[in-house]
Specification:
Number of strands: 23
CATH superfamily of the largest domain: Acetamidase/Formamidase-like domains
Shape: globular
Number of domains: 2
Strand content: 35-45%
Bound molecules: calcium ion
Mean pLDDT: 97
Structural class: mainly beta
CATH class of the largest domain: Mainly Beta
CATH topology of the largest domain: Jelly Rolls
Largest sheet: 9 strands, mixed
Strand order of the largest sheet: 1-5-19-7-16-20-21-23-22
Distance between the termini: 38 Å
Low-confidence stretches: none
Radius of gyration: 18 Å
Helix content: 10-25%
CATH architecture of the largest domain: Sandwich
Amino acid sequence: MKISKTHDIYTMDQNNEPVAYAESGDTVIFETCDCFHDTVLTEEDLVSQIDFSHVNPATGPLYINGAEIGDALKVKIKKITIAEQGATVTAPGLGRLENLIEHEETVIAKIDDDYVYYKDLTIPLNKMIGVIGTAPAGDGIATGIPDDHGGNMDTTMIKEGSILYLPVNVEGALLSMGDLHASMGDGEIMGAGMEVQGEVEVEIEVVKNCNYKLLPLIETDDLWITVASAESMEDASDQAIKNMVDFLQQKTDLTFNQAGMLLSLAGNLRVSQIVNPNKTMRMELNKRYFV
Ligand code: CA
Ligand code: CA
């Protein structure tokens, strides 16, 4: 099953009409626009010309039959396919250098299977999903904002081969995603990655009665990663750390103190992004400690 990018939404909202239905265990392909709704195609297309009512589109939502409030949605990212060209932008007021930027500028880059060709440099390809989430309980949340439901987390570890666990806050979960990047550095300091159109193939599974209260959570071959978003980096960090301590206490015999000390010795607190309306931090811990 493939969901066309013509099904673009700008809020993750329980009132959004599902555009497709899946069963637990199904594989689904989401075709996605880039974060500019595919409008930045040449270096003459500048930030000031972008329609900001149509930025950060997500494709969906997908209703998953049998997903109930309190379950988790396990999203295995099987394949990310991206276009052969991407765009990144800057403009006064954007990102961490905001007041120092004197003029707006767009860079278009060619992309192949190994690299992003940025000016005369090559950047190793690092395909990832910027926006992915379920519908939150209560009011909808703009797709540009990351929060407990996922959303605009801009987390480099949400990539091919990773498994993302998201909360099911409403019946059917209502999964949507978009904002692919060909590469992005942790922090996304100017506010944009190498923004690119593409497709994401995911396998979806409903995990019943998963009241962790610590989602979103990422699993890779080697790592467990808790992800949290909040108004400040400190608050996001504290939440990601607390969630990893909770997770360790659920999965091991470590006490609260011992779990905290383990993170102090072997866990890595990392920046996902510090340019969106909420900041996103993550706590990474090697799976070897979950025994
Ligand atoms: Ca983003
Ligand atoms: Ca982006």
